[in-house]
Design brief:
Blueprint (H helix, E strand, L loop, with lengths): L39 H17 L5 H49 L1
Length: about 110
């Protein structure tokens, strides 16, 4: 009998062992990494579609579906807020650059 926590491989006759582990923390991935969407908005929309289909097909309880949609909505809202903040910062940076360029032009024109 194996000791507690010990992992033994008794594969025989050209058997292949994909993963042999006593305890796993985190992800285990075999094969090719799946394609990841380049756009997080696209990824959230895709997940929302999958979530809706799972609920419609009866693979997801209604209370779980409602909770997941609420979490998805919060993620979409946070992403929207972040995008607006980024846009505001970019606009502010462009305005500052324009003011600096204008001031530099006046200084050079005065010389």
């Amino acid at each position: 009998m194996p000791e507690h926590g010990a992992t033994y491989n008794i594969a025989r006759d050209n058997a292949r062992v994909g993963v042999q582990a006593g305890a796993v923390q985190g992800d285990v991935r075999l094969g090719v990494e799946p394609d990841r969407p380049a756009d997080l908005v696209e990824a959230l929309a895709g997940f929302g579609s999958q979530l809706g289909r799972a609920w419609e097909d009866g693979r997801l309880a209604e209370d779980t579906y409602i909770a997941a949609r609420a979490e998805l909505g919060a993620a979409e809202e946070a992403l929207q807020t972040k995008a607006l903040q980024t846009e505001a910062l970019q606009t502010e940076a462009l305005q500052t650059e324009a003011l600096q360029t204008e001031a530099l032009g006046r200084v050079l024109g005065a010389v």
